[in-house]
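Input (structure):
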């Protein structure tokens, strides 16, 4: 007969609350995060009835692998933009005989830690720790208590956990090549970041690496970047304002927008100025946000490979889990290519 154990997920299900809520109650943080007294009492009484003890099981844990993977994220799980990241992870886990459990922290470090501990508590074989956008993250110490992979993120301090990220430098090169191949050798302006590698939004790894790729290709092709407009946030409003300011001083031939939402704002400012895309100004973006397909003309953009990122993270983690006893060395950074999605927003300069 198989051994039984009580997990935090069992307590949560029997109490009618989320695993996150159950974890906060069991760690004494219910009042801190305004969990109702009724829910707190229900979780505590259920835990006592089931014989749950934090970090323990009622009997010895089963030998071997649990065939489960924890997926802890800030907002990626509920974001339409990056839903494919979760789908890629789910499909890759299923194909390898694993089940994926997803938890969302909302970016709260306390909840992040408790989610990781909850995943470890139910004997997850490994954990994918994901971010909504590529950035440096503070990794909870408990993540290092077993196999783990960072997804769309890099550790801000401790660097011994593998990361799976988009190949942003190559993405920047690809964007520059699109303009150079179309014949653009002057009148190029940047919207969102630059001109220097530190003129970027806070903690934005993507901005730094995209800049590196852009400057590499433009420099080799002899293309001078006339101006760069750093935006504190990559929103349509910021793209609109930056482009309006640019038009006060220059008549651009091409705009490189550091994401598609900036490009949407740029489209509006160009249209108000009586300029057409791509007849007067070519525009290229990044991310392949759903908004790109609704823009007219359809925006040419360098895509974030969300599905492939999720799938690669799980593949790397499963390899770590299954080869753990052989102490196989895993590359610390895994880069996933960013394909160009052709639209109608780039044309040869007049």
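Output (sequence):
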């Amino acid at each position: 007969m198989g051994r039984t154990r009580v997990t935090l997920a069992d307590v949560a299900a029997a109490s009618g609350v989320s695993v996150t809520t159950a974890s906060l109650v069991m760690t004494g943080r219910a009042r801190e995060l305004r969990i109702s007294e009724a829910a707190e009492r229900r979780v505590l009484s259920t835990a006592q009835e089931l014989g749950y003890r934090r970090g323990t099981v009622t009997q010895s844990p089963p030998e071997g692998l649990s065939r489960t993977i924890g997926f802890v994220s800030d907002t990626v799980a509920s974001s339409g933009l990056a839903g494919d990241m979760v789908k890629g992870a789910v499909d890759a886990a299923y194909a390898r005989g694993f089940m994926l459990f997803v938890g969302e922290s909302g970016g709260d470090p306390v909840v992040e830690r408790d989610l990781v501990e909850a995943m470890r508590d139910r004997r997850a074989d490994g954990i994918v720790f994901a971010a909504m956008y590529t950035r440096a993250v503070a990794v909870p110490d408990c993540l290092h208590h077993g196999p783990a992979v960072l997804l769309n993120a890099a550790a801000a301090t401790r660097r011994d956990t593998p990361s799976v990220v988009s190949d942003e430098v190559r993405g920047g090169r690809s964007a520059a090549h699109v303009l150079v191949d179309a014949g653009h050798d002057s009148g190029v302006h940047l919207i969102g970041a630059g001109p220097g590698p530190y003129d970027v939004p806070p903690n934005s790894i993507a901005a730094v690496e995209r800049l590196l790729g852009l400057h590499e290709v433009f420099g080799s092709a002899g293309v001078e970047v006339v101006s760069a407009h750093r935006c504190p946030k990559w929103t349509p409003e910021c793209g609109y304002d930056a482009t309006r300011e640019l038009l006060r001083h220059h008549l651009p031939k091409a705009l490189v927008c550091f994401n598609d939402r900036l490009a949407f704002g740029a489209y509006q400012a160009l249209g108000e100025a009586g300029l057409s895309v791509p007849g007067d100004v070519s525009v290229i973006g990044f991310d392949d946000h759903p908004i790109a397909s609704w823009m007219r003309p359809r925006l040419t953009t360098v895509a974030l490979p969300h599905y492939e990122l999720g799938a690669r993270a799980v593949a790397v983690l499963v390899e770590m889990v299954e080869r753990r006893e052989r102490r196989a060395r895993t590359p610390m950074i895994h880069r996933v290519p960013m394909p160009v999605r052709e639209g109608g927003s780039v044309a040869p300069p007049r």
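Notes: Residues 69 and 125 are 6 Å apart (CA to CA). Residues 1-63 form a domain with the 434 Repressor (Amino-terminal Domain) fold (CATH 1.10.260.40).
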